[in-house]
Automatic annotation (TrEMBL):
Belongs to the KptA/TPT1 family. Its EC number is 2.7.1.-. HAMAP family: KptA. Keywords: NAD, Transferase. Pfam families: PTS_2-RNA. Removes the 2'-phosphate from RNA via an intermediate in which the phosphate is ADP-ribosylated by NAD followed by a presumed transesterification to release the RNA and generate ADP-ribose 1''-2''-cyclic phosphate (APPR>P). May function as an ADP-ribosylase. InterPro entries: Ptrans_KptA/Tpt1, RNA_2'-PTrans_C, RNA_2'-PTrans_KptA, RNA_2'-PTrans_N. This is Probable RNA 2'-phosphotransferase. It is an enzyme of class 2 (transferase). One of its GO terms (molecular function) is transferase activity. The gene is kptA.
Length: 182
């Protein structure tokens, strides 16, 4: 089985090719972001990142953030969310809980409080249902700060929300009036 270091390396590689740069290995994503598993394994190997189906399945099954998902017969794989390439995730709009959370670095706070949350180079703004996850996300970019998002109020005002396979809430943007600094 893979070492933790190999697991992390392959997981980061999968994030790159399934979320941002499928052209890096010449893989095709369909309109919903799915890639053929056999092609992924073959083309990854040609790019110098070698793994078997068993190892790929282990990565998908054990990833603590559930970043990747297989279709029912494990012939297709996709990233659950976080894409910068245009796909139709197929997620249906859902009513969010009253409050969701967004973790960021404190260095971003002034800009966010002036301009709101924007998806930047991704397809959606990512929100979590708990502060612990938001803190973990924010700490990847510096000293973390958590913002409270008045999600149900946004939804009632006509904003769409989607829940990804790995339970990350997605929306297009969050205007300043729906934000509170914890």
């Amino acid at each position: 089985m893979l070492s933790e270091k190999e697991n992390t390396h392959i997981s980061k590689f999968l994030s790159l090719v399934l979320r941002h740069k499928p052209e890096h290995i010449g893989i095709d994503l369909n309109e919903n972001g799915w890639a053929n598993v056999e092609s992924l394994i073959t083309l990854s190997g040609k790019a110098g990142v070698n793994f078997s189906f068993k190892e790929l399945k282990h990565i998908v099954d054990t990833n603590n953030k559930k970043r990747f998902a297989f279709n029912d017969d494990c012939t297709l794989i996709r990233a659950s969310q976080g894409h910068s390439v245009t796909i139709n995730s197929g997620y249906e709009p859902q009513q969010p809980p009253e409050v969701l959370f967004h973790g960021t670095a404190i260095k971003n706070l002034d800009s966010i409080l002036a301009n709101g949350l924007h998806k930047a180079n991704r397809l959606h703004v990512h929100l979590s249902s708990n502060t612990e996850t938001a803190i973990n996300v924010g700490s990847r970019h510096g000293k973390p700060v958590v913002l409270e998002v008045m999600a149900l109020q946004m939804y009632n005002d006509g904003f769409a929300f989607y829940l990804s396979d790995n339970k990350v809430w997605l929306t297009d943007n969050v205007p300043v009036k729906y934000l509170k600094d914890l």
